[in-house]
From TrEMBL:
Its main location: membrane. This is Major facilitator superfamily domain-containing protein. It is found in: Membrane. The lineage of its organism: Eukaryota, Fungi, Dikarya, Basidiomycota, Agaricomycotina. The keyword Transmembrane helix applies. GO terms for molecular function: transmembrane transporter activity. Residues 1-348 form the Major facilitator superfamily (MFS) profile domain. Keywords: Membrane, Transmembrane, Transmembrane helix, Transport.
Amino acid sequence: MFSWGMISTFSAFVNSFSSLIAIRLLLGLFEAGLFPGMLLYQTLFYNKRQISLRTAYFYATSAVAGAIGGLTSYGIGFMDNNGAGTAGWRAWRWIFLIIGIPTVLSAFFVPIVLPNSIETATFLTEEERRLLRIMRDNEIGITASSKELHKEDVMAGVKDWKVYAWSLAQFCGHAVLYSFSVFLPTIIRGMGTWNNAEVQALTVPVYTVGVIVYLTAARLSDRLQKRAVFCFAGGSLMIVGYALLIAHQSVAMSYAGCFVVAAGLWMSTGTSMAWLNVNNPRYGKRAYASGMLITVGNSAGVASPFLFSDKHKPGYRPGYAATIGMLAFALCLHVTLYLSLKRANARKLSGQEDWRMEGKTEEEIADLGEDNPRYLYTL
């Protein structure tokens, strides 16, 4: 986090295209482990009944950052002084500096704030530690062995088609996340005659709606113990939102479309992350699955800038159409995963998987993870 913050801060001093490419590659190198690491880290403390909301608290910060970034950019935008800049610097340089420095400073608090385990969390009482251990250890599939990294578990993840189905769905969702986050100001600017500062200000309510809807959906997801339905709802909302944008009958309709996209974006992609994690009780497979999900998902950042070409503005119909196509594909993948997990649960409940327990001790049965006939997938 410290290195990431330093590189981001010193992006303000870039003075050539080659130095920009170099510093962006370094930024990606140091940033890469944070997100999958945090997803995996949360599963060390929370059980499958609690993970959606905790994932939402973390993942929703990207939407919060979008809102704060919009406000910050609105303020910093005035430092451009019609191209003259402030203290010899254009506004875009100040953005890197002002946003990068807090990242560097906050890195020093991470070792103090984040414990390595339940046992080393100094802010917990002994009773709270005991309760957390009970909630984690009483889950079917959670054993002492399941909490450790085993090559067999990693290879089980490598061979599981479901990991790649979730990852491809996340690619489609992240293509929207990256293109929407990057091009939202461009989309809004194309709706009217606002200046740059006003455009940045108009992005804030959009991100705010995304955060509120996602946190509400995550709380409901944990309470109802349902994941797929929120992936379906989020994907469908995004398709409707982009349909409103592609129709572009009025400024009000297009701006409303941005809100609808935001309402579905974080709900769908965030719930999908939690859905993958809760259905992988063994640490090794969960670690591989989380890493693959983010690797494939984040690679959408390569494709997303090409979705909205200047030659197609202000309608951007090809970009919107391609996005709708990807969202429909992600929806099909989520439906396929849901039906597959539902079928697997039905087989277990009907006793068709009981043969896996034959000749095994209770400890060996518990160590089967998701192959345990008593373990039911969360739908």
